[in-house]
Protein backbone atom coordinates (compact mmCIF):
# COMPACT_ATOMS: atom_id res chain seq x y z
CA UNK A 1 0.00 0.00 0.00
CA UNK A 2 3.02 2.27 0.23
CA UNK A 3 3.06 2.94 3.98
CA UNK A 4 4.11 0.94 7.00
CA UNK A 5 6.45 0.87 9.95
CA UNK A 6 8.94 3.70 9.61
CA UNK A 7 6.77 5.69 7.18
CA UNK A 8 6.02 9.36 7.76
CA UNK A 9 2.44 10.62 8.36
CA UNK A 10 2.18 12.13 4.88
CA UNK A 11 3.06 8.74 3.34
CA UNK A 12 0.05 7.25 5.15
CA UNK A 13 -2.19 9.98 3.72
CA UNK A 14 -0.84 9.25 0.23
CA UNK A 15 -1.47 5.51 0.74
CA UNK A 16 -4.89 5.59 2.48
CA UNK A 17 -6.38 9.00 1.73
CA UNK A 18 -7.05 12.12 3.73
CA UNK A 19 -10.08 10.87 5.69
CA UNK A 20 -8.71 10.31 9.18
CA UNK A 21 -9.00 11.46 12.77
CA UNK A 22 -5.83 12.73 14.37
CA UNK A 23 -4.96 12.48 18.06
CA UNK A 24 -1.97 13.69 20.01
CA UNK A 25 -1.56 12.48 23.56
CA UNK A 26 1.94 13.91 23.97
CA UNK A 27 4.16 16.26 21.98
CA UNK A 28 6.15 13.27 20.76
CA UNK A 29 3.21 11.04 19.78
CA UNK A 30 0.68 11.19 16.98
CA UNK A 31 -2.09 8.79 15.99
CA UNK A 32 -4.01 8.79 12.71
CA UNK A 33 -7.20 6.75 12.64
CA UNK A 34 -8.24 5.85 9.10
CA UNK A 35 -11.20 3.74 10.33
CA UNK A 36 -10.08 0.14 10.04
CA UNK A 37 -6.39 1.12 10.11
CA UNK A 38 -4.66 3.18 12.79
CA UNK A 39 -1.07 4.36 12.43
CA UNK A 40 0.79 5.56 15.52
CA UNK A 41 3.87 7.73 15.16
CA UNK A 42 6.62 8.92 17.44
CA UNK A 43 8.83 11.93 16.85
CA UNK A 44 12.57 11.91 17.16
CA UNK A 45 14.80 14.73 15.97
CA UNK A 46 11.77 16.56 14.54
CA UNK A 47 10.90 13.62 12.25
CA UNK A 48 7.74 11.54 12.66
CA UNK A 49 7.95 7.79 12.02
CA UNK A 50 5.29 5.08 12.30
CA UNK A 51 6.06 2.60 15.06
CA UNK A 52 2.71 0.81 15.44
CA UNK A 53 -0.05 -0.28 13.05
CA UNK A 54 -3.42 -1.39 14.41
CA UNK A 55 -6.17 -3.12 12.44
CA UNK A 56 -9.48 -2.36 14.17
CA UNK A 57 -11.27 -5.51 13.07
CA UNK A 58 -14.26 -4.67 15.31
CA UNK A 59 -15.08 -1.73 13.01
CA UNK A 60 -15.63 -3.84 9.88
CA UNK A 61 -19.40 -3.97 10.44
CA UNK A 62 -19.75 -0.28 11.33
CA UNK A 63 -20.46 1.13 7.86
CA UNK A 64 -22.95 3.96 7.94
CA UNK A 65 -24.30 6.18 5.19
CA UNK A 66 -21.43 8.27 3.88
CA UNK A 67 -18.68 6.46 5.82
CA UNK A 68 -16.96 3.12 5.47
CA UNK A 69 -14.38 1.90 8.01
CA UNK A 70 -12.26 0.34 5.26
CA UNK A 71 -10.44 3.01 3.23
CA UNK A 72 -11.49 3.00 -0.44
CA UNK A 73 -7.97 2.20 -1.65
CA UNK A 74 -7.92 -0.92 0.55
CA UNK A 75 -11.36 -2.04 -0.71
CA UNK A 76 -10.26 -1.45 -4.31
CA UNK A 77 -7.09 -3.51 -3.87
CA UNK A 78 -8.36 -6.37 -1.66
CA UNK A 79 -12.12 -6.37 -2.18
CA UNK A 80 -14.76 -6.64 0.53
CA UNK A 81 -13.74 -7.81 3.98
CA UNK A 82 -15.93 -10.03 6.15
CA UNK A 83 -18.03 -8.26 8.81
CA UNK A 84 -16.34 -10.33 11.51
CA UNK A 85 -13.24 -12.50 11.83
CA UNK A 86 -13.43 -15.65 13.94
CA UNK A 87 -10.20 -16.12 15.87
CA UNK A 88 -10.26 -19.91 15.52
CA UNK A 89 -10.20 -19.58 11.72
CA UNK A 90 -7.39 -17.03 11.83
CA UNK A 91 -5.26 -19.01 14.29
CA UNK A 92 -5.74 -22.19 12.25
CA UNK A 93 -4.40 -20.41 9.18
CA UNK A 94 -1.45 -19.04 11.17
CA UNK A 95 -0.60 -22.50 12.56
CA UNK A 96 -0.86 -23.92 9.04
CA UNK A 97 1.68 -21.27 7.99
CA UNK A 98 4.01 -22.63 10.72
CA UNK A 99 3.76 -19.56 12.94
CA UNK A 100 3.90 -19.84 16.73
CA UNK A 101 0.95 -18.52 18.72
CA UNK A 102 0.99 -17.75 22.42
CA UNK A 103 -1.60 -16.52 24.87
CA UNK A 104 -0.43 -13.51 26.84
CA UNK A 105 -1.14 -13.86 30.54
CA UNK A 106 -2.88 -10.59 31.40
CA UNK A 107 -5.15 -10.21 34.39
CA UNK A 108 -6.05 -6.60 33.54
CA UNK A 109 -8.20 -7.20 30.46
CA UNK A 110 -11.10 -9.48 31.33
CA UNK A 111 -12.93 -8.62 28.10
CA UNK A 112 -10.15 -9.61 25.72
CA UNK A 113 -7.70 -12.47 25.38
CA UNK A 114 -4.41 -11.41 23.85
CA UNK A 115 -2.45 -13.64 21.51
CA UNK A 116 1.12 -13.07 20.35
CA UNK A 117 2.90 -14.21 17.18
CA UNK A 118 6.59 -13.62 17.97
CA UNK A 119 7.92 -14.29 14.46
CA UNK A 120 5.94 -11.33 13.14
CA UNK A 121 5.70 -9.13 16.25
CA UNK A 122 1.93 -9.24 15.85
CA UNK A 123 -0.65 -9.18 18.61
CA UNK A 124 -4.27 -10.29 18.26
CA UNK A 125 -7.02 -9.34 20.71
CA UNK A 126 -9.93 -11.79 20.88
CA UNK A 127 -13.25 -11.18 22.61
CA UNK A 128 -13.67 -13.55 25.56
CA UNK A 129 -16.29 -11.84 27.74
CA UNK A 130 -19.96 -12.49 26.79
CA UNK A 131 -21.19 -9.14 28.16
CA UNK A 132 -18.52 -7.23 26.29
CA UNK A 133 -19.31 -9.21 23.12
CA UNK A 134 -22.99 -8.32 23.45
CA UNK A 135 -22.21 -4.63 24.04
CA UNK A 136 -20.10 -4.61 20.86
CA UNK A 137 -22.66 -6.68 18.91
CA UNK A 138 -20.01 -9.36 18.42
CA UNK A 139 -19.51 -12.94 19.56
CA UNK A 140 -17.09 -14.51 22.00
CA UNK A 141 -14.17 -15.71 19.89
CA UNK A 142 -14.31 -12.81 17.40
CA UNK A 143 -11.09 -10.95 16.67
CA UNK A 144 -11.37 -7.44 18.12
CA UNK A 145 -8.12 -6.00 16.79
CA UNK A 146 -4.63 -6.82 15.58
CA UNK A 147 -1.43 -4.83 15.84
CA UNK A 148 2.12 -4.90 14.51
CA UNK A 149 5.00 -3.28 16.33
CA UNK A 150 8.57 -4.37 15.61
CA UNK A 151 9.72 -2.90 18.94
CA UNK A 152 7.15 -4.82 21.02
CA UNK A 153 8.60 -7.22 23.53
CA UNK A 154 6.59 -9.54 25.75
CA UNK A 155 8.29 -11.26 28.66
CA UNK A 156 8.61 -15.00 28.09
CA UNK A 157 7.13 -15.73 31.54
CA UNK A 158 3.84 -14.12 30.37
CA UNK A 159 3.55 -16.35 27.27
CA UNK A 160 1.54 -19.58 27.30
CA UNK A 161 1.65 -21.84 24.26
CA UNK A 162 -1.64 -21.61 22.35
CA UNK A 163 -1.29 -24.63 20.03
In round numbers, the mean pLDDT is 91
Helix content: 10-25%
Largest sheet, if any? Answer: 9 strands, antiparallel
Query: Roughly what fraction of the amino acids lie in strands?
Result: 25-35%
- Low-pLDDT ranges: none
Total separate domains: 2
Strand order of the largest sheet: 1-2-3-4-8-7-6-5-9
Structural class: alpha+beta
Shape: globular
Number of helices: 4
The span between the termini is 32 Å
Instruction: Tell me the total number of β-strands.
Output: 9
Radius of gyration: 16 Å
Order of helices and strands: HEEEEHHEEEHEE
Overall description:
This protein is of the alpha+beta class. It folds into two domains: 1-81, no CATH class; 84-163, no CATH class. The protein contains four helices and nine strands. Strands 1-2-3-4-8-7-6-5-9 form a nine-stranded antiparallel beta sheet. A hairpin with a 2-residue loop joins strand 3 and strand 4. The protein is globular. The model has no long low-confidence stretch (mean pLDDT 91).
Topology summary:
Blueprint: H1 9-16, E1 21-23, E2 29-33, E3 37-44, E4 47-55, H2 72-78, H3 87-96, E5 102-104, E6 112-117, E7 122-127, H4 130-135, E8 143-148, E9 159-161
List keywords for this structure.
single chain, 2 domains, 9 strands, 4 helices, alpha+beta, 163 residues, 30% strand, 9-stranded antiparallel β-sheet
Short synopsis of the structure:
With 163 residues, the protein is of the alpha+beta class. Helix content is 19%, strand content 30%.
Amino acid sequence: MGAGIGSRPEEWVTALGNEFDENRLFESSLSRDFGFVVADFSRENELWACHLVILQVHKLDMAIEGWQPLPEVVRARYGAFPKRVVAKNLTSALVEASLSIYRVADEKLAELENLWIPEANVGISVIRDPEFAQSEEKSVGDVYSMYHSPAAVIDADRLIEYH
